[in-house]
Amino acid sequence: MIRGSPDVVRRWVNEVQEALHSSSDMVQFHALSLLYEIKQHDRLAISKLVTKLTRGTISSPLATCLLIRYITTIVRDSGGNALASVTGRAAYQFLELSLRNRSEAVIYEAAKALCNLPGIEERDLGPAVAVLQLFLSSPKSTLRLAAMRALSSVAIAKPSAVIKCNDDMESLIADNNRSIATFAITTLLKTGSESSVDRLMKQISSFMNEIADEFKIVVVTAIRELCLKYPLKHRVLVGFLANFLREEGGFDFKKAIVDAIIALMCVISETKESSLFHLCEFIEDCEFTALSTQILHLVGIVGPTTIAPARYIRFVYNRVILENAAVRAAAITTLAKFAARIPALQASVSVLLRRSLRDEDDEVRDRATLALRLLGENILDDGPGNGEVELSQRPFGQNALEADSTGELPLQPEIHLLLEPLPISFAQLSVALKEFEVAGGREDDALALSLTTLPVVDYTRPSSQSAVCIGGVPSA
Amino acid sequence: MLGAIERYIKQAIVDRNAMVSSSALVAGKHSCFDLQQGYVQAHI
Asked: What is the rounded CA–CA span in Å between residue A320 and residue A243?
């Protein structure tokens, strides 16, 4: 084909104008789109063209759809309060008129354009929503999907405009097409009132097993927003999310739920205890290292502030026994946080930590050593042979111990010192922990690929070393 | 090259047959190569 000669084509305007008034629908469509392209850099010419055409010279549905899109572009480009101007008003009237077009495509296009107009008022949306509501009960699933999609985007900005479609949408939850059902559910979650939440939740729980993970994530996000809107319903909603956690699902789905629960914990303090418990139950059977470490970190921060912190110790120590190195390391840090914040637990946690001194993983051993040291325990008590092996095997651990011992602080003040400034030092420690998590993820990849394991090990060490250094600062 | 056949294309645009006319218009669209980007944006 001939390319790159727009100047020549521009000379055809007269012929194209003539073709625009052709009797064939197809020719009208092509003529309009070419005419738009010829003139598209001239805004004035475009708006003249559109104004002329809105007076009703085109009959082709496709060309009308195209015209509606051009109108939307013009209105959007004019920015600000577009509907206040004369052209904006005219555009609105044309779109409203198009809602009564005989072609469904035009009706939909006009309704969608109306919904997306910037700065449109809710009463102006009425006709468009009414038309979309009719589509919802159409026998054609394409129309149902299209209407549902448009309505769900309206619901984000103006939920009250969509409320009158609630009944129709509820019947769509049972639709054969899962995409339509998901849109219906999420839209209902946005528009539903507080009283309908319970009923909706029942419907969703039967429906969740049938849809794919991406859809589930959409639903989870919608539930999270709903819970922020109606904090009183947190028991039902968080319980619902926790139920999902126990079911099958991929990483993204689980992460979405965990993120939602954590976000709700931060906003609604009543959910803190129960959510933490749900999360702890989740890590009992969690196959995703990243999520486990994230939750362990959270337990370390929030757990000690709860009414009965001791009951979380069991969950955390189970991780030390059962999980991989990265999770074990995170669990050790969490245990240390409990011991540091709650003096009553210190003795029993120290016993637990002591067992990890002989862990097969460097990082876990280091963290256990550091934690015990910070708690004021004498590690070498564990047995002379073991202590020596550890020191000779790990020069870096030795350095840490040396640094600590050169501090020459009496044991008693050290404990006292730890209890006060530890929150700061552990906050810094958590930064190092995050760093390690990143490194841990990479390490897994590298091991799976069996490539470049060495740089990863090099990467892990500085981060754990920095953790030791940071931890060592207050005692030095 | 385009100049030589321009006359025929112009004629084709106003042809009475819808197929011929549309083909010519589409040909015109294709030759606005540098404007294609704008076309894509306008249609999303």
From this structure: 25
Consecutive 10-residue averages of pLDDT for chain A (476 residues): 61 79 82 83 79 78 86 77 69 81 85 80 79 84 86 80 78 78 81 74 74 78 79 76 78 82 79 80 80 82 77 81 81 81 78 79 80 68 38 38 37 39 49 62 46 34 35 34
The answer for residues whose C-beta is within 8 angstroms of residue A435's C-beta and 6 or more apart is A463, A466
Q: Is the ipTM of this complex over 0.90?
A: no
CA distance A148 to chain B (A): 19
* The two three-digit tokens of residue A441, written as one number: 């993820």
Residue in the block written with tokens 């319903």? A233
Question: Which residues does chain A have within 8 Å of residue B35's beta carbon, measured at their own beta carbons?
Answer: 6, 37, 40
- Chain B: residue whose CA lies nearest to A40: B38
CA distance B3 to chain A (A): 8
